[in-house]
Structure prediction request, 119 residues.
Amino acid sequence: MTLFHALIRTHHITSRKKVARLRKAAGTLGCYALLRSGGCPGIMYCKGSEEAVKRWVEFVHRLRYKDFQLASKPAPIDAKVAEPEARTGLFEVASTAEFADAMEKRGIASWWKQAMGFS
Prediction:
């Protein structure tokens, strides 16, 4: 199975009700989602099957986050780093630095920096 991923930026992610809905959606779709929540900027990374990632992006868009930006459209992950996640569901980090560390561990730091406009 080819794995896909996508990256979303928002102004912020603070609503615990929306996070609860995101958690339920990630579980239902069987994808891995990582959120940088609690302040600005809000960042969301999703990884899974093509269908799951596309549906995740649609779900997030329907939640009407302020300044929703699809920083990287759903796309196949480079075969050299495309390993399935050990767990599915939604996970949160509190800082952009923690998010960057998570991207580094997955071997996609350069992809993430480019999508975020850092490089």
Q: What stands out?
A: Residues 4-116 form a domain with the Alpha-Beta Plaits fold (CATH 3.30.70.100). The chain has a mean pLDDT of 94.
